Amino acid sequence: MTSKVEEALGYEQARDELIEVVRRLEAGGTTLEESLALWERGEELAKVCRRWLEGARARLDAALAEEAAAEEAGAARAEPEGDLR
C-alpha cells in the first residue's frame, strides 16, 4: 500500500530519490538499521517508478492501437469496391 506522498511523487522525483538511496547504500558507512530503512525506501520508490512506466506504456500502446485502427479504416476506404464492368 502506498502513501499519498508516494502517489504525489512524479517519475523524475522518485527516480532521482532512488538514485540517491542507491548511492548512499553503495557508499556504505550506515548502520544496519539505516541500511534497512534505505533499502525499504528504495523498494517503495522503485514501485512508484514502475507504476509510472507501466502507465506510460499503457498510454503509448493505446495511442499506437488507435493510430493503427485509423490507418486500417483509411486503407479500407481507399480500396476500390470491385470491378464495375
Automatic annotation (TrEMBL):
Localization annotation: Cytoplasm
One of the Pfam families matching this protein, by short name: Exonuc_VII_S
InterPro entries: Exonuc_VII_S, Exonuc_VII_ssu_sf
Enzyme class, UniProt record, top EC level: hydrolase
Swiss-Prot/TrEMBL catalytic activity: Exonucleolytic cleavage in either 5'- to 3'- or 3'- to 5'-direction to yield nucleoside 5'-phosphates
Keyword field: Cytoplasm, Exonuclease, Hydrolase, Nuclease
Predominant location category: cytoplasm
EC number per UniProt: 3.1.11.6
Protein role: Bidirectionally degrades single-stranded DNA into large acid-insoluble oligonucleotides, which are then degraded further into small acid-soluble oligonucleotides.
Family of the protein in this entry: Belongs to the XseB family.
SUBUNIT field: Heterooligomer composed of large and small subunits.
Protein name: Exodeoxyribonuclease 7 small subunit
Record organism: Streptomyces pharetrae CZA14
Lineage summary: Bacteria, Bacillati, Actinomycetota, Actinomycetes, Kitasatosporales
